[in-house]
Amino acid sequence: MTEEKQHPWVILFDIDGTLLTVDRKFNRPLIRSILDDLGIDYPDMEKEGFSGRTDHDILTSFLLNHDFDEELYQKLKSEYLLRTDSEMNSGHVIRHSHIDEAISYFDKMGAYVGLLTGNYPSAAQAKLKVAGIEYDFKFGAFGEFDKDRNQLPLIALKEVEKNLNINPDPSRFVIIGDTPRDVECANYANMKCVAVTTGRFSKEELEPFNPNVIISDLSNPEEWFKKLTQA
Ligand SMILES: [Mg+2]
């Protein structure tokens, strides 16, 4: 019996906390000011952190005191995107070290390298641009329509199926992210997960979620990728 040829690895990078970090001193006041401008009476935004949540989830959570008003949500979303794009500059964003090393390692390997992020697509684009990350990611699974990050790997599977015209094998997908939610969504979809501690979570905090590998930054990708494929 001949073994069926495996498709290329699909590598999915998270953005916030993984490739870059947007300063909370920019992000929180921006959102507060938009909410105030729109007259939205919002619950305490520090109650639950933003880490690993989709933009759709974060923004709709501010509308809890307004039942659900689609028109208001769309206004909030478009103001958020407009002002993120126009007001964010390189002083608000830290570009993490070793990201080019990791991206180019997978690119040279012939992997299909994309994004899996809770961001709206244009927020993702704005952040990457400001951070000077110019790599042409092949595709993205974004948090535009879903509150639930666990849906993002399913979007990635559909995209790969469509773009490469293959029947995708989730065990050939690797999610690289910094939060328990990244690990959970990978496990939910039977994908592999590399957890990196460049975000707000430590090794000890990420470990209980069982990522395949935990690293402190994206340097030496050949080492941790080898560990991952042997895990
Ligand atoms: Mg993240």
Give structural notes.
With 231 residues, the chain is α/β, with parallel strands linked by helices. It has helices at residues 24-37, 55-61, 70-87, 99-109, 121-130, 152-164, 180-188, 203-206, 221-230; strands at 10-13, 20-22, 93-95, 112-117, 140-142, 173-177, 192-196, 213-215. A six-stranded parallel beta sheet has the order 5-4-1-6-7-8, with helices on both faces. A two-stranded antiparallel ribbon has the order 2-3. 37% of the residues are buried. Magnesium ion binds at residues 14, 16-18, 52, 177-179, 199. The site of magnesium ion has 9 residues, from loops.
Q: Treating each run of at least 4 consecutive H or I residues as one helix, how many helices?
A: 9
Counting structural domains, the number is 2
CATH topology grouping of the largest domain = Rossmann fold
> How large is the radius of gyration?
18 Å
Beta-strand content estimate: 5-15%
- CATH 2nd-level architecture of the largest domain: 3-Layer(aba) Sandwich
SSE string, helix = H, strand = E?
EEHHHEHEHEHEHEHEH
Span from first to last CA? Answer: 26 Å
CATH class of the largest domain: Alpha Beta
* C-alpha geometry: globular
Q: Can you list the strand order of the major beta sheet?
A: 5-4-1-6-7-8
Described by strand count, sense and barrel closure, the largest sheet is:
6 strands, parallel
